[in-house]
Write a structure and sequence with these properties.
This protein is α+β, with helices and mostly antiparallel strands and 647 residues long. It is 63% helix and 8% strand. The protein has 23 helices and 11 strands. α21 runs antiparallel to α22. The longest helix is centred in the last third of the chain and has 46 residues.
Length: 647
């Protein structure tokens, strides 16, 4: 229906409509205040709180002067299962009835299609169904019937309030006298327009990020010295924002069915100094899980108009990020912990990126489609992204996804290009994870080299078995071996969470056999026979120890070269890697020969059996270390050549 048609139908009565609409907007807030107060009173009666909610800010925001209502929640008590004594309960129902009448009034004024008659009949039927309230005793079923905000729970007063509010918004838009940067407005004065323009400036800056989602229609009016601004957010019935500006004071009343989204919105405005009264709604007997809703009031008292307009612009720019917020949180929560999902949504909002593009491109399916191509091992049902690539990598990657999706759709990029970028970045993250594991393996290899060098330096210097030099080396070797074990544990933990990296656990565990063998050799070399140092070690043992040092260095060179080897890469890294791996084979063969030389030397000596045992065991552990380094190097070589170069 057009504005002209309304005036034609109303005649002089049409002059009443703006005032009735303004009163209806206030009545809508009063109705929701009453419903929230009843709901919280029952919840607190079931589970009393030391600091019960007062809803004072909400009461002040909707112009109710009765301060005794602030004590209703704290003074409510449960009389039995699902039965409550709520002070002022009967009075609250009367207030609710008056609010509904005020909301119906402007609709009745233009009731050309029978809408007002239908809604009035709904109101009568719903109020008649409420059990009589005597002595302020209320049943939980009555509160549930009043406050249910979900259509699948059946009709209810809360649903009626939401439906009436939608009709009021339509009427506001129809009778609007002017358009202020996209907002339908009437009755404004000169000072209102810059404030409304600031709000709309912020909203227009980010509104594109809703993409094809409906919502963000804004209406504004002046009533009783106050500028009223309403936004329908995403056209969800129970999701409403009303802003009042009186002088330099701005009051935001926000209604939501999701507590986490409410906190998100409160945090978004906290940077501007908005003070919120705590919004609490807990489950009361007789209320279904999905029937809770939250009403929160926030206030900013600005020192000057510049601060006020900055706040209004900030507020307008944040509204788009409320659309489908909970849906996005759930989708991200399928891949990462809920706390990180909320953190990501906060980051995306602060970067003016949002989450709607991510949802339009498939949400978590966008990621899992990329994972199916990036991960060689089959995905396990329900496996989280952060369990595959680590929590920090998952945070960085999902930030990239949110930014790429939003910027890509905003700039008109093709969905295929966006998906390709998401997939390519995931490959990079898996490659980065493998490089981190190789770096840890390199640190372990450096420890093995230091273990080998410590023993070699002692035997090369001609130290006697059981001498102070070997004792110091044994102490140092024990510390190094403990550090090596820490690295092994870290890699084991990491590969459990990153698909396709099991090979690195096997490599470091094999290399750790070399660390264990070298620490055992250091321990044996420090043993004294009868408390006295023994004879010098035979020359072949010195050569054997030197070969193990060379093997450890060759393994470390192979590990350091591995990250540089990839398909299509340069020849030099490949050559360096292959030469290091080949040298390990040569060293292992030579250590076999030197171990035999040690045995021959011992058989030709005159040392006692205990000395003979020590030297023989030291040689055996050195050969074990060389063998372990060879196996670790060959395992790494097979991985690089098979999985990296020729995959």
């Amino acid at each position: 229906m057009s504005k002209t048609r309304i005036i034609d139908l109303l005649g002089e009565k049409g002059l009443l409509l703006p005032a009735l609409l303004n009163a209806a907007i206030l009545a809508n807030e009063r109705a929701k205040y009453v419903l929230a107060l009843l709901q919280m009173a029952a919840a607190n009666a079931d589970s009393p709180s030391v600091e019960a909610a007062t809803l004072r800010a909400e009461r002040d925001a909707c112009g109710i002067a009765e301060a005794q209502l602030d004590r209703v929640v704290a003074r409510s008590e449960a009389l039995g299962p699902g039965v409550y004594h709520i002070p002022e309960a009967a009075h609250l129902i009367d207030m609710l009835t008056e609010a509904l009448d005020a909301m119906l009034a402007p609709i009745a004024l233009v009731d050309v299609e029978g809408s007002a008659r239908h809604q009035a009949e709904r109101k009568r039927h719903l109020l008649d169904a409420i059990a009589p309230i005597e002595g302020d005793v209320v049943e939980g079923e009555t509160i549930a019937a009043l406050t249910s905000g979900r259509p699948d729970a059946g009709d209810g007063i809360h649903l009626l309030v939401m439906d009436l509010h939608k009709e009021i918004n339509r009427l506001q838009a129809l009778i609007a006298e002017e358009d202020v940067d996209g907002a339908k407005a009437y009755g404004l004065d000169a000072g209102d327009r810059p404030l409304l323009a600031a709000f709309m400036k912020g909203m227009r800056r980010t509104a594109v990020l809703k993409f094809d989602h409906p919502g963000l229609a804004t209406t504004a009016a002046r009533s009783n010295g106050t500028l009223l601004i309403q936004n329908d957010i995403g056209e969800t019935d129970a999701h409403v924002l009303v802003l009042k500006v009186t002088g330099l004071t701005a009051t935001v009343t926000y209604t939501d069915v999701h507590a986490q989204r409410l906190r998100f919105f409160q945090n978004a405005l906290a940077v501007n100094g908005t003070v919120w009264e705590e919004a609490r709604a807990r489950q009361a007997a007789g209320l279904a899980d999905n029937d809770l809703f939250y009403v929160a009031a926030g206030k900013l008292v600005a020192p000057d108009e510049n601060v006020l307009t900055a706040f209004l612009e900030r507020l307008g720019s944040r509204i788009v990020f409320l659309i489908d917020w909970n849906r996005a949180r759930k989708r991200l929560g399928l891949m990462v912990p809920n706390s990180l999902a909320v953190e990501l949504l906060e980051w995306a909002a602060e970067q003016d990126l949002g989450h709607r593009a991510f949802l339009q491109l498939g949400g978590e399916r966008l990621i899992y489609d990329a994972l199916e191509q990036a991960v060689r091992t089959p995905l396990r049902y329900g496996e989280k992204l952060h369990e595959m690539i680590g929590i920090e990598a998952a945070r960085d990657y999902l930030r990239f996804v949110l930014e790429t999706a939003s910027a890509g759709m905003r700039d008109g990029r093709s969905q295929m290009l966006i998906r390709d970028r998401v997939r390519a970045e995931l490959f990079n993250h898996f490659r980065s994870a493998q490089q981190r594991l190789l770096a840890e393996t390199g640190s372990h290899a450096a420890i093995v080299e230091r273990l080998a060098e410590g023993l070699f330096e002692a035997v090369r210097a001609g130290a006697m078995l059981g001498s102070e030099a070997f004792a110091r080396n044994a102490d140092h070797a024990k510390q190094l071996e403990s550090q090596a074990d820490d690295i092994v544990r870290t890699i084991r933990s990491t590969v459990q969470h990153i698909a396709g990296t099991e090979i690195f656990r096997r490599i470091v565990e094999i290399a750790d056999d070399a660390a264990d063998a070298l620490e055992d050799a250091a321990f044996l070399a420090a043993l004294a026979v009868d408390g006295e140092v023994t004879a010098q070690v035979p020359a072949p043992l010195v050569e054997l120890a030197e070969l193990v040092v060379e093997g450890a260095k060759s393994f470390q060179r192979a590990v350091e070269a591995a990250p540089l080897v990839h398909r299509g890469g340069g020849r030099d890294p490949v050559q360096n890697f292959l030469e290091a791996a080949d040298r390990l084979v040569t060293v292992e063969h030579q250590t076999d020969a030197r171990e035999r030389d040690v045995t021959v030397a011992l058989m030709g000596s005159t040392i006692d059996c205990r000395h003979l045992y020590l030297v023989g065991e030291i040689a055996h552990h050195l050969e074990e270390a060389a063998d372990a380094l060879l196996r670790a190097g060959l395992t790494l070589r097979d991985h690089v050549l098979g999985e990296v170069m020729f995959d």
